[in-house]
Amino acid sequence: MSALLEVSGVSVTFDGFRAINNLSIAIGEPELRAVIGPNGAGKTTFMDIVTGKTRPDEGRVLWGEASLSLLGMSESAIARAGIGRKFQKPTVFEDQTVRENLAMALRNKRGPFDVLFYKTNRQARARIAELADEIGLSDALPRRAGDLSHGQKQWLEIGMLLAQDPRLLLVDEPAAGMTPAEREHTTELLTRAAKTRAVVVIEHDMEFIRRLNCKVTVLHEGSVLAEGSLDHVTQNQQVIDVYLGR
Amino acid sequence: MPLRTVLSRALAILVLSMLALTAPPRAAVAQDTLQPLLQQYAEELASPSRRSFGAVADALLADGRPGAADFLRRYEAREVVQRPEDGLFFYAEDAGDLVRLIDVDTGAAVADVSSRDVDQIRANAGVRRVIAAALVPFELNAPERARREAALDAISRSAEASQIAPLADSIAQEPDPDLKTRKERLFLLLTAQFGAERAERLEAIAALGGDTSIEARGVLNQLTATRTEVAPSLPESANIARVLTVGEDLTQAEAYADLVDAGLAEPAQTPSELRAVLAENIVDGRVGGVPVGRLSDPMARIEAYEALEDAGAVPPRAAPDEAAQAVAAHVFYDEYVLNDPEITTAAQDALDSTAQAIATYQMADLVLDGLSLASIFFLAAIGLAITFGVMGVINMAHGEFIMMGAYTGYVVQLFIPDYTISLLVALPLAFLVTFGAGVAMERAVIRHLYTRPLETLLATFGISIALQQLAKNIFGTQARPLTAPDWLGGAITFNDIVGISTIRVAIFVLALIFLGVLLYILKRTRLGLEVRAVTQNPGMAASMGINPDRINMLTFGLGSGIAGIAGVAIGLYAQVTSEMGASYIVQSFMTVVVGGVGNVWGTLAGASLIGFLQKGIEWFNPSNTLAAQTFMVLFVILFIQFRPKGIVALKGRAAGD
Amino acid sequence: MAKTTLAPRKGFLSENPSVLRFLGLLALFTIIISALAEGFGVGVISTSFLKVLGMTLCLCLIAVAMDVVWGYCGILSLGHFAFFGLGGYGIGMWLMYARTEGIVRESLANAPIPATEGEVRDAIATQIFSVVGSTELPFIWGFAHSLTLQLLLIVLVPGLLALVFGWLAFRSRVTGVYLSILTQAMTLALSLYLFQNDTGLRGNNGLSGLQNIPGLLHLPQSTIALWFFWASALALGLGYLLFAWLVSGKFGSVVRAIRDNESRVRFLGYHVESYKLVVFTATAIVSGIAGALYYPQAGIINPAEIAPITSIYLAVWVAIGGRGRLYGAVIGAATVSLLSSWFTGGGAPNINLGFYEIVWTDWWLVLLGLGFVAVTLFFPKGIGGLFDYLVRKP
Known about the structure:
A: alpha/beta; Rossmann fold; six-stranded mixed beta sheet; 10 helices; 37% helix; B: three-stranded antiparallel beta sheet; 8% strand; extended; branched-chain amino acid transmembrane transporter activity (chain C)
């Protein structure tokens, strides 16, 4: 298992506040990884750095076999390189239909003129149907995304993520606000996805993480506090002090 | 007793000083009365002429009799009459319908007569100037300050060599320090121009270096005046300022024109002359054998002319390179009008050091100008910055609040005639009016649009055009005066270059007060705390028991109220029209955007940057304010490329996206 | 609608019947107006009113462009009237040059000696620029003699300006009200530039006499007005078709997504800036063309036409008509600009309240301003939204 993403020695400061402090994490392919930590530990900032939203003050972020540096790349270029992201709050395009949402995410050429002269085809339609089936929204394809329930929006976003066909999925709190049944479905989606690609899940809910059954990284004050199986890290005294002990 | 001693002493001083001044060649003096002397020149006095009167005035003064200067002064004021019966001169005073004659020597009233019984002597303007010039030396020591000042003015207006001595003598006795300085400077100026001794003159010229007054620069410029000359070779005798290079200092065409002016070359034929000559020589539809139809080609025209030339019909045409050869065969140079190298060099050196001083002062003046423009922008923009920063609302009607404030000032002046009191009433009233308007607008419109910032922009624009048109309907389209009280009317002048009008100083002070008050409100009061809380996190603030609705309303009212006060201030020095707000709104936006949103210091920085930069650009091209504004806006556009969040930007996660 | 995006494309028009309906209505309108116009001898519609209608069609075209850039892409541009004005200046330069050339040649024809080209040029320059105290032809008039080149400039100048400005603004991620202010600053800079006498476009005199078309001087204005009316209608039809195509399908989907959540689109891998640039530039070019058709009908263009306020009015039209639907923009522009000329032209009867007489020339702007506030507050979807509502629930 070679490292797909390698973050090393990264630090970032906001107005004197050190959000990320000499952080190093490596993600392999395929792999399912959970990242936990208390509020302000830098979980979301870590995602921001990887996806190009935030520029770190120092450190390296390397990607893929060619060890491409992601630091100079724009958000869209990083996304095209194969990193997909799901936000904490479900962000789908509410004014458009589920089908349009998925079609937009579908892996295709992204240039404005390619898109302008794009003509849909049988293959694309089949892929959308398949994705809709996977996220349980087959019947909802012509519906406005804004009319979906909260959980459905979360799935639609995961579906859009899968449609992008990325090598690395960054998923921020996918189970927030879901019913237990919905959670189960989400777990299933993620573990299935992690069979062929790398998936990083940020989550607060321990039960959910236990069900993912994967390696866990604990962040605290912007750096890695512990790493290993859930049982391993939950027995770490430091982790108990800063996180679980509260 | 004491009065008499004072009077006699004053008289003694006067007489002594006159003696010293006029330095009479003759010993004959003061006991004589004036009237006999006047009778000697009776003819010239009765019908004065500009050309001859100088000699008369000089003679009267040179004789040294008391009252001669006084007589001339009253003569100049047309107060002297002649009695036709005996030809005596009297001073005339009004006495009802009659004229009261007063003896020129004793000052006693002689008789009251009808104005038809005496001859009025009408000294025309030319004669009066002559008298004024002759009186200057006397006036320099006159007891009244105003008269001494007038004499100095007269010297500055028409300087003469003869004034040097009396001026020099009067310096020591001058009691008024300001006038003394002025006399000393005038003395320098006169010496530099007319000084008899070379060393003295050079010294005076050197002393003028660095003096930025227009008078001093005028003298130096006069001394270093040049004229452009042309000659086959550089003349030895000329006092040459510099040699001109054709192609650099002057163009080929200008050089040739100089040659023509100097009579060293024939004027070149212009295309229109060529055309006229050809037109005169049309024969059977041909000119010199060339068909007229072909003459739309410049080459064909030359061909036709040459044919005419060969036929002897027209004078020969200059060869194409003749002009160039002629120019090459001559030198072009600037020659000092004054053929005295020592003086011109000294004057040039003095001018150079003056130029340095001027540059420094101009810089200072530029800073003052920039400061005042910056404070105006600050005043206009700060209200906008508050509403934009706290509420994220762009208020396009902000300019109309400025206008509303200005019109409030105007209306107050209609009721309160005293400008100082009306200003004191207008400032708070303008605040109240626009505060009310702002709150009303926030309640009625803006609070419904908080989630739609772009639509707020447009809705407030709708309000803006409605308010503008309302103002037009009420007050008409012409500008209304908002008059500043007298104590704000003048200007503070440091020297001939550095100066600033008082009203601008007042605006600067007002801007400072605003800055202080706003900082106090935001940093030290409960309202400020709540405003900052709502700015940073409205949701959290609401959960802490702060009512964001109330804060928004108050903030909007405050921002609008400030616009009202700014309106009064701006109205005092600009015109109050219904469109005055519109002319400030874009600048205000740029100030806010350049400075950075939601921060008083940011607005200050933005206003300073824009104010100074605009003045700076204007300095490079003073004739074109429009161009300066164009460059200014372009700069802002570029600036935002590099600092999209402004100079003072909020950083980190709080800034959001 | 939903099915259309991914169904095999049977043809764009059959999928978007509303576009076809619009084009049909436009054609019908054009035919009826033409039949009633003076040019055909009926004369129910005067030539001057025909010109107003033709100009209104041009305004509808720029409103459609504005709707695409604002209603679909979310960029509240306060600069599109600047592009409109540039188009007007572009055609105006040729119209003025060519017409002056005709006059100059005619007057020089009687001279004993035929004039050289240089003399002709000088005479033209003197004619055009003596009003700003110059007798030289500024270099920007270098192409003014050629209609072809000048037509090319009508497309190139607004296009390039939009491209450069948009590239600068979008790459530094200026969005929302900031972007609006920035576009307003661009408009202000341009109008200030044009107001200067020495920048070669006759300062605040502007270009005039544009209604006289060189080469067509023998035709009556009623005929020329009709031709321009047709050209404007054609341009509006084509522009509408182009933009309807642009905002449909996947491109439209991405553009609307950018409007709603720009950064999310970025994380999907789309280079948002390029999309904005394409939309901004395309609409700028169409605006320039609309301007080039408008000003020969108006007869005069001056820098005041480009002042920032006119661009805001454009946004007002689109907002009143209803954003995010192209026919909304057309309705808004047509309604407001026609109402505006009715009210300000003295067409509306004054209302006497006894104690005060409402003179509409004075009160129209107050009405418009307040009406606009009301529309923003109560009908955020504008007249077009009302229209939708009525159509769906008859």
